[in-house]
Every structure is written in structure tokens, then in C-alpha cells.
Amino acid sequence: MTRSPASLFDHDLVVVTGKGGVGKTTVAAALGVAAARRGLRTIVAEVAARDDLTRILGGEDRSREREVELAHGVHHTSIDPDTALREYLADQLPSRTLAGLLADSRVFGPLAAATPGLRELLTIGMVWELAQPERRSASAEPYDLVILDAPATGHGVAILSAPRSFADSSRNGRVGRHAATIDALLRDPQRTAVVAVARPEELPVNETLQLRDALGDALGLSLSLAVVNRVLTNRLTAAEARQLEEFPVENAAVRATLAVHRRAHTQQAQMARLRRGLDCTVCGLHELPASALGAEQISELARELERVL
Amino acid sequence: MTRHVVHGLTERLADAAIVICAGSGGVGKTTTAAAIGVGLAARGARVAVVTIDPARRLADALGIAELGNDPTPVDPARLTAAGVELRGELWAMTLDPKRTFDDLIERLSPDAHTRDEILENRIYRQVSGTVAGLQEFSAVAKLHELHVSGRFDVVVLDTPPSRNALDFLESPARLTGFFEGRALKAFLLPTGLAARTFGRGTGLLLGALRRITGVELLDDLGVFFRALGGLVDGLRERADVVAGLLTDPGTRFLIVTSTEREPAEEAMFFREQLAAAGMPFGGLIINRVLEPGGPAAGVGAASDAIAPDLEPALGARLAGKVARAYGEALALMERDAQAIERLAQRTGDLHPVIVPELEGGVDGVDALAAVYARLFAV
């Protein structure tokens, strides 16, 4: 089913995932900036706890797990499974002392780590909490939009499907009920959208097509948008390329232009393959010459994304 | 452009028995590992290349499209067609990490019942797939197995695409730590697992875990840890041997990266970790470097002087396009040059091997031959 990409920011949760190294954090940040420009109070939640986004948007490296406003209307938090476990215990157990005792115990941590899907469940549980109109602590303001900078494809799907498998295996417990609630959010295409990030190359395109299948199988969701990073600008028509190929003298500029043209051509073939395989909008973001991405570049990418949103 | 002096890998790998290609995902690590295999086999060695998740065309090029757990010979005719003569032997395989670990469990299990109890356990299936660096450990275990088999002069390993390089280096120690951990010991207490689990003492903790997870999982955990208990010594021994391999003087770690920020940061971090762990660094390979039109381009005129020169021959419109495209290409090349300089300084490899961005992708036999030619400066 084709979903209208115009509705991306109408969701409660936008999950950004893709193959490792394709620029997921960049796209999550650019989406965050675009959403904030529309006046949405937005938070980008990073799972891998490396604070990549804080560096990109120029914030100070503050303590993790806190919700920090990095740019106007764009907040950021970094979710760490151990902290998630700690907070969850505090919520679920009658006394904070008991929760602290458990979380600090050298036995409990490894056991929890070995429990299938528990860390994933707790992680996505914190994301779910961010998306609630009523926050856990009364002082916390609700967000209009949560953007999850999810781990690479396989693990991203694992995180999204953890609540269901957990709910299935412990149906009677509190956790099972909570997991079912989270699962309901994730499976609702009106509330949760998934954005795939790729590069115009064979392997990332393959992985995006696999992600499409895995999402359908595990959650019954389809992709809302695919963003392709680092697409070269090709300015030449076929006739112009031929004209340059026949250029009589050796010229570095002509040679370089033709090389870019050929690479862009290969990239376009991969983009076309992606478009054929997906029902959603495929948006290419242009390669930027800056050596490091900063707020200015993210803002530029956000403008490119706004054209298709 | 001093970094573009060609320094091949030939000397650096002269006495290597194990070559480990490390680096972030998406930087052409698998193709690099395969091309190193080609280069060593071309010089007469018997080489096995262990790849992880290769691109379809690369797998087809090597004849290893199926997951297998033992190397198969690569048909030399495939490479002859691309202009490379193999004087030695090239073997390749795609690692199945889960099966490698399953095989290990099978070998270490005292009997079929224990083996089945572990392999069919829900917790094991979870743990062996994802947690605790078992994929990384499996890769090193396979490396070790091939190394001691005597069938190969050199084994080349393409490492799993970890988010963090430490996952790989620490995988043997982590595995050992996991088995020696208190969680395991708590479950391995000699008598009455269930009674202890739900009784006094640790009962408070485990009761809370039960409350959170549901009791069925706890039963699975109990079975898993108890069944694994008999294998702990064997696994620990194996982990120790495998860890020793990583610091062996016959081992070379090659760090593979692109010029992009994240892989480059990861490469520099990995270099530090190698040094800290006393593991032998064999050199830096920087892939996907932009050299529009081939090496030594980019020494042309500044982009603003281009258009007037070309205008008579191409017309104003096309000359303008060429000038803009060239200007952008120069900016990207400048970005690459800065990244290379920084990588060289930070890793201490002042003459990294530079492999250009290949037109038409990095996956076919021709690309393999082209990367080989750059790596070994032939």
C-alpha cells in the first residue's frame, strides 16, 4: 500500500533505520530540523549512545539520557539499555531502594542481558514513553514528534519486534501487558512511520529491499520514505557526455567531469532499482563537499527533504 | 599529494600467516580481503579468504554465493580472464557464524543430549545470534581452525561489521568473562537449581526478574546455563587459544577505511586499541578515494580558469557545466586529501595504501583485479 509521504510528520514516531554507515544519524537530524521548522516540538532519540547528533548540531556533550534542546525546537536524547533497565525497575517495583539494589547487583545485569529481547524491549519502551502525551514525570513536556535514530537494519527490526515477542512469551506479567501496549503503537501505520536510509550503491540498496521485507514480516509495516544519501549531481545530457568523450586534447577538467558523470550514472541505476522495489517516495540527498557535517549542512539537507515531505 | 606515492602491501605481508581486515561496514572491507587473497595467491601462496556477507557479485566472482563452513577453491580461470595469474591456490568461504558456534558446541558437548539441549534452547538461540560478540568470536575461531589445519600458508579474514571495533578484539575475553561471570555461577550451583532460584538468598533478585520477564524464560535460562556448564572449561580454553592468535607475530591487522568521517574515526580508534592490546598493525588501506579521471588528476588548472579555456571548443553552456563539475570534484578531492593526511598522522602509517573509488562498483571480478593491482602495486 502506498502511503502519502505528506503525512510523515503526522505520526507520533518516525523510525529511521538502514545499513551501518549510510548516514542514518544525518537523516534523523535533518528530519528533526525539518519537523521543528513546521513548528513541531521534536525529539531525536539516539540508541547507540555515541552522541553523534550532539556533535553534528553543535551542542555540548552533556550527560546522556537527558533531554536536551540542541537547536530551536529540536531536542535530543541518547538511550542506553542499562539506564532503561534502571528506570524500568524503578517504575515497576514497589520501592526505589529495591530497584536500585537490583540494578546495581552484579547478578541481575547479566541475567537481564541474557534474557531474550529484554534490552531491546526496555530501549523501545523509553522511546515509547517519549511519544506519550502524558509523560512519566509530571514536569516533562510532551513532544509532538519522536524521531528514533535506530540501529542498523537487522538490529533495528529486532528492536521494533521485541515488544511483540516479549508479549507473546510472558503474557500474564506486567511487562507482557506493557509490551503489548508498545507493540500496538509500533504496528499502527497511522502513528508509526519507518524511514529507510541508503546510499546509491548495490549493498545498501540490497539491504533496504531486505528491510522492506523484514518490516512487512515482523510488523506488517511498509516504508514511508527512503532517503538516499550522498547522491552526485549529474549535469550532463547524453549528447554532452558524448561531446566531452570526443574532446580532442587531454584536459583534467573534462576527464573529471566525465568520471563524475559515469559515477552518477551508476548511482542513478541503483536509485532506479530502489524505486522499482519500493512503493514509497525515494528522496536523494546531494553529496556535500564539507569535510564534516555541521548545523549548516544539516539545515541544507532538511531543505532538500522538505521538498518531498 | 605526497601520500599518493604507491606503497604496496607486498613487503608488509611478506611473513604473514594471518591477515585480518578490520574497519567499519560499507568501506569495501570484503573486496579488500578478497583482493589481498588474490595478491598472495598470485605470488604462490596457498590462501584461504574468510568473508562475511559478501556482495552478490563478489560472491559469484569467487564462487561462494552459498553460506558454507569450509573454504572451496576459486577457479583460477575466473581471474585469468581478468588478467591475474594465480601461481598458488585461492580458496574462499562465506562464514556462517551461527553454524560455526553450533559446531563448536557440538565438538565440546560430552553427549548428544547435552548438545541438543543447548542448541534447541531459546536462550542459546538468542545469545548465539546476537549477544556477547559471539559472531566475532566465531570468526576468530574459524580463523584459528583454518590456521592450524596446515592446509593454507595464509588465512585472510574479513571481520564482521561491528559498530565498535572492540567487539572484535575483545570477543575472546568477553566470552571467557561471560562463562566465568557470577550469573553463570549462580545458576551452576551444584544442587537444586529451581529451589535456589525461587527460594531464599538470590531468590529476591530472581523473583524480581521473574516478575519482569515471566517464569518460562527463567526456566529456559536455568536449562541453558546448566547444560552449558559442562562446556565452560572447553570454551574457555578455546577462547584463550584464539586470543593468543590475535597477538601472534605472524598476524597482521590491516585497517580498512574510507575518507568519510565516521569510518575514519573508527579506524583511528581501532589503531589505538590495537596498540593498547599489543596486536600487530600491518597498515592502513584507504578505499574509495576520489581521483576523477584516474591518479594524478587534480593537478589541473584552478576551476575558475576552466570555462574560458574550454568555451571555444564546447560552447559557453557545456564549458560552464564542466567548470562547475570540476570545481565540485576538486572540493571533494581536497576533502579526501585532508582526511588521508589526518588518518596517516593519527595511525602512524605515513604511507597508507590508497585505493580509488572504482567506477561501476567494487564487486565483480574486474573490480577485484583492479583493487588487487592497487593493493600490491602491480
Automatic annotation (TrEMBL), chain A:
Where does the ArsA/GET3 Anion-transporting ATPase-like domain lie? Answer: 13-166, 181-236
Q: Which Pfam families has this protein been placed in?
A: ArsA_ATPase
Supply one GO molecular-function term.
Answer: ATP binding
Family classification: Belongs to the arsA ATPase family.
Name under which the protein is recorded: Unannotated protein
UniProtKB/TrEMBL annotation, chain B:
> Which Pfam family, any one, appears in the UniProt record?
ArsA_ATPase
Ranges for domain ArsA/GET3 Anion-transporting ATPase-like: 18-180
Q: Name one GO molecular function term.
A: ATP binding
Under the heading PANTHER family, the entry gives: ANION TRANSPORTER ATPASE-RELATED, ARSENICAL PUMP-DRIVING ATPASE ARSENITE-TRANSLOCATING ATPASE
State the name under which the record lists this protein: Unannotated protein
